[in-house]
Design a protein that fits this description.
The chain is built from 8 helices and 12 strands. By secondary structure, the protein is of the alpha/beta class. The strands form 3 sheets. Strands 2-1-3-4-5 form a 5-stranded parallel beta sheet, sandwiched between helices.
Length: 231
Amino acid sequence: MGKILVVEDEGSIRELIVLNLEMAEYEVVEAATAEAALELFTAAPESFKCAILDIMLPGMNGFTLCENIRAASPVVGIVMLSAKSLEADKIRALSIGADDYMTKPFSISELKARIDALCRRISRSQVTVEESSRLVSGNFVLDEKSRVMMKNGQPIDLTQVEFQIMELFFRNSGTALVRDKILEGVWGENYYGDVKIVDVNIRRLRMKIEDEPSNPQHILTVWGYGYRWNP
């Protein structure tokens, strides 16, 4: 089903997570520190499907680990765990490339459900197609085989979540999409998290594709509703 990296310094919590994932037939690699986890991950980043990262770790914290893992792999799924429910921590985690965020104490069944959904989404995005499928919208091109987005012929580095949001926009160009529709289309209909994850990813996408992110011309806000793609 895929290899999962679990990084948690509290042994009892780490053991509980590992046990339940192994019962669900995942291959699990565990670490108590960010430094040990990064060494394990960078040795074979392509072998990991997802990573579960605690934020409060001895030495290097989970935020820095997340940034390093995301730099090494744009496709691995990342779920961050925190004992703090601060909105700023959640936004920071999502802004640096995490796919999801959970606050302790959490339901182990909910964590497993989120990992299942994330792995399914990643697997769908990595299915090899026989012929290259290219979606064109104005000066933008999405190559669904190579998972690359181009703007005026220049590649833009996107995470898997960002790429899937752009796929949804391209296939619904000019249509106002409510946030819940984006959430369901990218994260799945059984996603447990906060719809604000959409806004954080939209903010990050604007930084990458807009000439002036503060005055977007392509990803437009439909106030009180959601977003619309304008090629």
